[in-house]
Every structure is written in structure tokens, then in C-alpha cells.
Amino acid sequence: MDTLLLSRIQFGANISFHILFPTITIALGWMLLFFKLRFNATGDQKWMDAYMFWVKVFALSFAMGVVSGITMSFQFGTNWPGFMETVGNVAGPLLAYEIMTAFFLEAVFLGIMLFGVSRVKPWVHTLATFLVAFGTTMSTFWIIVLNSWMHTPQGYELRDGVVFATNWFDIIFNPSMPYRFVHMLLASGLTVAFLIAGISALRMLWGDKGEDVKSALRVGIIAAAALIPIQILAGDMHGLNTLEHQPAKIAAMEGNWETGPNTPLVLFAIPDQAARENKFEIGIPNGASLILKHKTSGVVPGLNDFIAQDGTVMHPRVAPVFFSFRIMIGTGLAMLLLSWTGLVLLRKYGAGHMPRMPLYAFCAMSFSGWIATLAGWYTTEIGRQPWLVQGVLMTKDAVSDVSAGMVLGTLIGYLVIYATLIFAYIGVITYLARKATKGESTPNRGYPRGGEANVTALQPGE
Amino acid sequence: MDMFGDPAIWLPWTFAALMGLSILIYVVLDGFDLGVGLLMPLASEDEKDRLVASIGPFWDANETWLVLAVGLLLVAFPPAHGIILTALYLPVFVMLVGLILRGVSFEMRAKAPITQKRMWNSAFFAGSLMASLSQGFMLGMYIMGLTWTLPNVIFATLTAVFLTVGYSFIGAAWLIWKTEDQLQRRAISWAKGGIWGLVLGIVAISVATPFVSTRIFDKWFSLPEIFYLAPLPVLSGALVVFVWWQLSRLPLQNDRWSWTPFAAAIALFSLAYGGMAYSFYPYIVPEKITIYDAASAPESLFIILIGTLFVLPAILGYTILSYYIFRGKATALRYD
Description:
heterodimer; A: 462 residues; mainly alpha; two-stranded antiparallel ribbon; B: two-stranded antiparallel ribbon; 1% strand
């Protein structure tokens, strides 16, 4: 394998590992604020118990996100020096604003949020929780702005092959940004909803009868059921936006080779890029035309339009885009089915008396948000190839001239570490759940709601 | 943009200064974090918890200065970012793995089953060691002009060891300030054991730098510069003597003066760093590319600068707030 492909795999591995944790912290921050506000309003201990359990998951996820994020800021330089040299004038300020407005905000107030309950007044602690949640969301915003600009660049001009910014409003509010931002926030919300529902279900299966677990399960299921239809709608709109700006990506997602009307919706196939056709295709007649153009005669772009005169392929490799898209959709549909079933059962039995079968199902879906999120990012990022910045910079022109052996060696190193850490991360979350089930970490104790904090009989740190 | 003269001159200069400041703050702040990590094997099981507790609320924000520094390099001097990081591909990899291990162990050692705690303590130490060594190595390679020759690698290996021991010194100085009783006394002895690393590191860099480039030699050893610059080594020497004197008489009653070794350590790092910055200015890739050649377009830098002027004071403000809230001696870390 050459340096280009290895560098892509390495950066892909790093960014995939990284996104797992922000996907959790973005929405979990707001969920913690919700728990804290419920506690402030009702004084019911169960909300603080839920807060205390999930804040540990938050702290762990946050640390994983920070360390893997630092890796990426270096890899722009080690792996893709051409990226910053060409589009640095746009990417630079956006990344700078991300670091300055978001990264520091969350990192500093995290300390107060995690360890400060007994050191600051309750409202300061609530404020710190809010600022951390706000910081992670701001962080998402700036990163999504930059990423979206790489898909749909505007507000710039080229001088001697280097991008110069001409209109910052156009750059920030580039055409795909609003769709991508909403899609990502909802993805984070769903990931956390299923994580909370799944881990709560696990604790109930282990025999935890705590009020905090019941409430967390209820909150998780309701959030999931409420968000998934919005996400499906947002995803559809994002797709139409992509059709307008990146037709080659849509062609790969649909597995459609020839441009034309009456295009079927391909449910399954094995795209064969060498033969330029689909094997074993199962499709719904006119389906893709209906979804993308809302009429059977709607013309859907085909991959064969994206072959240059000299035979260079100017569309992404089809199979990875085609399959990741279907994995995302499939996971989304499973989420819809389970969360709405869960909602019905919740009304029928209440959170405390759920049958065991749906609890098992929620356990199994605990990390389903990760799968959908990764599949979605693979669809959009691989779908942009061979471009790094659509129409401006090719990926192969940005790669560094480090030897392939060096990239391969470090890639293996990263993969070993990442595999170990994901294993450890999931292991620790289940361990925390088991410990909480046994009641070791959340004995009944009073948390102050107003006035000076004066907590006695504290548990040693975890 | 034009009110301070040519924006292609003052903007790169400002950003080089901001980046330099971020690196210095990172070296001092994460220096003590990493130093505390390096001291882990010397501490007893109970003391290990206290060591981690002393840096627990801060390390996250401290590490962010590294992100800001490399971010400023990335956004303000894109070609330099590429050249420097490509040349340092391998040590950067080692540092990143170290920082990952260290950061994750922070959480894991407290949350994983107690039987695994020993393993995560080791990972915490190993991560701190890898990060410190690789940073020292990169420092040495940078001074030597980023070329991989055997003498350069040997020099970089030396600076790796010196910086690591230097970090353990500032870590110990932090502990003298933030702990008490038995642990504080042990920290004093650790600091005595570590200060040589800092001294040798400063000496090695001071001796080597002028001989790498005649330009730097002339900057230091010509008249009248040599008189303006004389206070730098003299002050550093005085600080070392002062630290040694303090270490020999601490701890005092009512914990008086316990903050002085840490303050002196900050001063020593800053002086050494200032000297280096003076040597290398105006180059960002030593002897090859100046900050003016490598800078992004003035329009882009100006956009970042506006934000920086608002945000940097706020960052400093809430950083100080955080240190104020967690002031005093380190207590056990808890979420409640």
C-alpha cells in the first residue's frame, strides 16, 4: 500500500476513534444539565443520583475525546501538510475559533463541574455544567463549519493555487453547514439516548430497583423516540442538499451507474466498480427517483458521468459509500422500531415493570449510536473523494512525503492502542454500572440545593 | 489593520509571540502535570492518589495550551507546521501515544476495578514518561535544525533526558506547594534530586545553540548585546542558588515559603525559554523559514487576532478562577 492510502486509513482511524467520544459528550452534557435542573426544581434525590452516575461516564468520555482530539491537531501537519498550505487561510481561523471559544471553556469548567460541587455554590456548579455543555456544542459548530466548507466551499478566491478568504459569512454559512450541524447534533442526542436507555436497562436486568435508574430509562426512551423521526427528516433534507452540491456522492450512495429517470431504490447489491455495474441487485422500481426528485420521472445522477476524458475516475470508490449508507439507514430504522416499541411498553408497564425482552434489546442497542454515526461519517467523507476540499484540493495533493513504512508502523501502533482503549472504555462503563447496581457508589446522601454547600460524609473520589 | 504599520510584519510577529507564549504556558503547566506523573513510581500507594488529586482539576485545561500552541502554528504559519511536524513524525507519534495513555489513565485508575488500578498507575507513569522524553527529544532536534543525523539524535536524546528530569523537578516543586507533612518532605527530596536535570538542560542548550549557527553566536556574543543579555544567565544562576537554599530549609513553620520552589521553577523555565526565543527569532523553521515567510494571509490572521483579543483574557480569567477555586492543599478528589 502507498503512503496516500495508509495516511487516509491512519487519519480515518484517528478521526473515527475521536468522534465516538464527542458524540457522547455533546448530548450528555445537556442531559446532565437536565438532570441537575430537575434536581434543583424538585429536590428529588434520584435526579442527583442519575447525575452522579452519568457525570463519571461524561468525565471518562471527555478525557478520551481530548486526548484523541490532540492527536488530530498534530496529524494535519504530520500527514496532510498540503491541506493547511492550500486552504489554511480558511481552515486556520475556523480551527482557532474552535480552540479559543470552545475547547478552553469546556476544559476549565469541566474541573469545576466534576470536582467542584462541595467547593462552589450550587448555582455556580449548575452554571459550570451549562458552560461545559455549551462549550461542547460550540466546538461542534466550528468543526462542522470547517468540515461542511470542505464539502461545499464558497466565500473564497484562488490566488496562485492558494485559497484566500473573501467573505466570512459565506464561508461559515456554507450550503451544507446547517444540515450537517443539525444532523450531527441529533446523532449525538440519539447516541446518548440509547446509551442511557441501554445502560439503565442493563442495571435493571442486574436487579437495580433504584428510582434514578427508572427515571434514566424513561428519559432515554422518550428522548430516543422523540429524536429519531426528526433525525430521519433531517437526514432526508441533508441528502437532497448533497444531491444539489455533490451529485457523485449521491450516485455512489444509491449505487446508480447511469444518469436517468425511473431510477430504482437499490436495497441491496454488491457494486462492482471494475465492471461498472451492480451484482445481485434488489431494488424498488422508481424508488430513488421518488425519494430524490419526488416523481417517478425524476432524473438521478449516475456514476458514469464522473469519468474524466482521460479515464480518471472522479467519483468515490462505490462499495464503501454504498454499504456505509445502508448501515446508517438500517441502524436508524432499528432505532425507530425499538424506541417506539419502548414508548408503548413504557405507557403500558411503566419503567419499573418492563418485560425482560425489551430490556435486553435496549442493552444490545446501547452503542448503536456509534455505529450509525460512524457509518454516516464514512458515507459523507469517503463520498467526497477523490477531493479533500470539493473542487479545490485533491486528497493525493495534500499528503506528506513520509515513507509508507513509517505510516504503516505508526498506524499499527495507533490501532493497537485504540482497540485496547475502546475495550477498556466499554469495560469500565459496565463496571461502573455493576458497582452502581450493588449500591456501592450511590448511597443515599444529601446534596445541597441552595445556599452554601456544606456536604459531610463524602465518599472518596472516583 | 494598517495602524501599526505593515500588517505583513506586525501580524506575524504578534502571532509568533502568542504562539511562543502558549508554548511557554504549556511547558510550565503541563510540565508540572507530567512531572507529577513521572514521580508516581517513587510514591507509596496512598500518596499516588494524592499526587493525582493535586493535578486532577487542572490537567485538562493545561493540556489545552498545547492544542492552542500547535493550533496557532497550524493556522498562522501553515508551511512551518507541515515541515516541522513531518520532520518530527516519529517523536510526535510517541508524544501523542504518551498523552493518550496519561489522559486516559487519569480516569481509568479511579474508575476501573481496584485490581486494575496498579496497571493504570503504570500506564499513567509510562504515558507521562513518553510525553516528556519525546518533547525533550523534539526540543533537541529543533535546536539542531530538524535534520536526522547521528550527532543531532545523540544531542536530542540528551535533551530528552534533561527535560524529563527537569519536568520531574517542577512537578516536585508543585507538590511542595500543594501537599503537606510526610509527602511534602518527600517532594522536597525529589526536587533536590531533579533540579540537576533542569540545570544541565539549560547549560546544554545554551552551549549548543550558538555553535549550531554563527548567526545565533553573533546575536549573543557581540557588543553591545552581550551586556544587555548578561542578566539572563546571571539571574538563572541566582535562581538555582535560591532554590537550593529554599529546598535545604523547607518545610518551615505554618508552611511559609512553600510556594517559592514552584515560583522559581516557573521563572527558570521562562528565562531559558526567553533565551531560546531570542536565539531563533526571526526563524520558525531554524535557519530556513522566517515567521514572515511562513505566515498566513494578513486578512486571515487579522480575523483570528480579533477573536484572540476577546478570548485570551477570558481564558486567562477563568483559568485563574479555576486555580483559585481549587486553591490550598490538595485533598482527595471526589465528584460530590
